[in-house]
């Protein structure tokens, strides 16, 4: 899969729900039209969703953002890309 086409994985820190960013429900907000709310589809906690590691089969929360020649990677500390000179 082309990494540029890949949807970010997201995980709920409250209930552990795992999905893709595209699956995330965007709640209608009557008070602030256009703003999206990170609303977990399972436990309904607001702002409980976090982006998960880019690495396949890893659902750790992202702790590192690392620019690489190909793309900007969002990974957990374990899967942080090696960078030259770093
Ligand atoms: Zn949840
Ligand atoms: Zn990882």
List keywords for this structure.
0% helix, 86 residues, two-stranded antiparallel sheet, mainly beta, binds zinc ion, three-stranded antiparallel β-sheet, 21% strand
Provide structural commentary.
The protein is mainly beta and 86 residues long. 0% of the residues lie in helices and 21% in strands. The protein is built from no helices and five strands. Strands 2-1-3 form a three-stranded antiparallel sheet, with no helix packed on it. A hairpin with a 5-residue loop joins strand 1 and strand 2. It is elongated, with a radius of gyration of 15 Å. The mean pLDDT is 80. It binds zinc ion (ZN) (2 copies).
Largest sheet: 3 strands, antiparallel
The first-to-last residue Cα distance is 28 Å
Name the ligand types: zinc ion
Structural class: mainly beta
- Outline type: elongated
Mean pLDDT over the full residue set: 80
What proportion of the residues form beta strands (DSSP E)? Answer: 15-25%
SS field, number of helical segments: 0
Q: Could you spell the SSE succession in H and E letters? A: EEEEE
Give the total of beta strands: 5
Helix content: under 10%
What does the radius of gyration come to? Answer: 15 Å
- How are strands sequenced across the largest beta sheet? 2-1-3
Low-confidence residue ranges:
none
